[in-house]
Design goal:
mainly beta, Ribosomal Protein L9, domain 1, 7 strands
Length: 78
């Protein structure tokens, strides 16, 4: 299953630890992908999705403001 990583992490893959970073799109076995999605560390990748993590002027990730209906943490990719 293809997933987009939302939270950088290490996980076991093929008897080695695999490191993935935020924004990476990676093919994973269904069991690992579903676990990451369940723990909100990844989302199922949709090739039609054209969004990326929004950043502040200093380069840090922008947080979502829960008081607004839109999610400011993501922006349309150019």
């Amino acid at each position: 299953m293809r997933v987009e990583i939302l939270l950088g992490s290490d996980f076991p893959l093929d008897k080695k630890n695999k490191r993935v970073e935020v924004g990476e799109i990676i093919d994973l076995p269904d069991k690992i992908a579903k676990s990451l999605i369940k723990n909100k560390a990844a989302v199922k990748f949709d090739s039609k999705m054209k969004k990326k993590r929004a950043r502040n002027e200093d380069g840090s990730f922008k947080a979502d403001d829960p008081t607004t209906p839109e999610n400011e943490a993501w922006e349309e990719q150019e």
